[in-house]
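Here's what a typical entry looks like (Amine oxidase):
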Amino acid sequence: MSNAHPHPLDPLTADELATGRAVLEAQGLITETTRFPQVLPVEPDKAAVLGGSRTDRRIQFTLLDTATGESADAVVSVTAGELVSHEKCGEGQPPYLFEEYDLAEAVTKASPEWQAAMERRGLGDRVEHAFCAPLAPGHFGREDETGRVIRSLTFLREDDTDNPWSRPVEGLVAHLNLTEQRVLRVEDEGDVPVPEDSGRYGHRPARTTLKPIEITQPEGPSFQVDGSLVTWEGWQLRVGFNAREGLTLHQLTFQDRSVLYRASVPEMVVPYGDTSIGRFWISYFDAGEYLLGKNGNSLRLGCDCLGVIHYFDAFLADDHGQPVRVPNAICMHEEDYGILWKHTDLDGKAEVRRSRRLVISSISTIGNYDYGFFWYLYLDGTIECEAKATGIVFSGAGEPGSANPHASEIAPGLFAPVHQHLFCARLDFAVDGQRNSVYEVDTVGIPIGDENPYGNAFTWKATELRTEQQAKRHANPATARVWEVRSTEHTNRLGAPTAYQLVPRPSATLMAQPESTVHQRATFATNHLWVTPYAPGERFPAGERPNAHPGGAGLPAWTAADRSVSDTDVVLWHVFGPTHIPRPEDWPVMPVDYSGFMVRPYGFCDRNPALDLPSAAHGHCEH
């Protein structure tokens, strides 16, 4: 990728990050105690990008003074080499620094109160390898929990290579102030024994019954890559990556017509349904509190990705604002996906075409969980987003064989609490341009009568969602509900508006009660659908800084104005994800739990766009 004339939507480069930091240093904004909890690209004006104008390349640096706890956002133009703005951060805390995780453990272990609690439990001789997990505190308005705070739960390990999540020290919670580097208080409740079942995995003798599967493309893949620009079988898009969201997709077009201007999963919340002192407050915002992109994996061939792979590196800023390369942060490849279409005619002649999809993926590890984000492009114009949750379930301890209404026993004395993984996708639609309207489409039964004399008839009903409040919607599998984004300027050969449908995989929304603090902080997760008119500052559904924020920011604040979403540039926010009641089969490492949605053409094409596919790789099927 050329640094001289990057595309306005290209990811940040190492040179740009270094240039931006140098500008801040020249302005005297960096001291020995300055850290960089978040560094993000400032995406350029949409009209300028669509108009082909050259735009300013800008970076937003969040600066944290670890000595005082004060934070500010600074925007730097790396094109002009100058500071554009510098202002104090508002309510809430910036995401956590990597170095704060080590600090939290060191401060916890140095605490006489924590040491006394371990001694009281007879664990004083096991503190050397104890793991003190640094966990976002939520927000409960406690007087001593202002500023930069974090909580810590303790887990035991046999050594520093052991899986810590198998041996929780139940009922022991340390509350810390990171700025003051001190423990605020320690809660020590109960005397539940530490489970001793091993959580080690990955070193068991491998089965020998599986035969190899070879994936080859002797002529190479069908996609072309030019910097961040990808072209594949009628599709064109730009691939991006940033510290907060991780993988992003930009300017998706199919058959040279626009579908989406931008697509990403900018936030997710993991609320727990346990009432114990060690878990009632847990509701992780894995993007806004921890940063999905900064925790991105370097993907490996044959493990994370299989086939003929193209990798994209990413460049992010570390805690000190220095550029860091994440090799192989994004994996892209093609994979066979079975039959796309088939028909056997009356003479017994069969025509069949195989499906193929382009896979663009990234994986992030946040503490005990691993999240894979997979975007699939299909030959028929369909887009699919799939989130894959795996890793290790969060655990607590209990009496073996006892019943817990909020947690299931997954190993002797080891209990995993019920929880949710609620992802929120941000889909900036552009179906044949920027002027779109949104309709909710339901199938509808018809009572027996003149319109249904035989009782078999049903139909469908499309209702336009005209305002933000009207567009706060739930999925409904009983009516096969979809949401349709229609162009208000273009029609197909039948005279109907060209459109794309958002097809949900219905799942539970936020289970927490409206009076709870997590409900206030994660209000975005209370609906499957929100629709807003495009606004450049509306990027994150729980607001800019969900860490230690009291709530109300993001989607609930924006949609309170009840703006029109008819015949305009619309953004759809879709909530999806599993509600997890853990099972023994999830231990010690959890098989992938899949969730996601589709975006498919509906009258966007005049006929099946995959009619011209060859019947096989070499033009025939074997008999």
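Helices lie at 14-26, 46-50, 98-110, 112-120, 517-521, 555-559.

More examples are in the samples folder.
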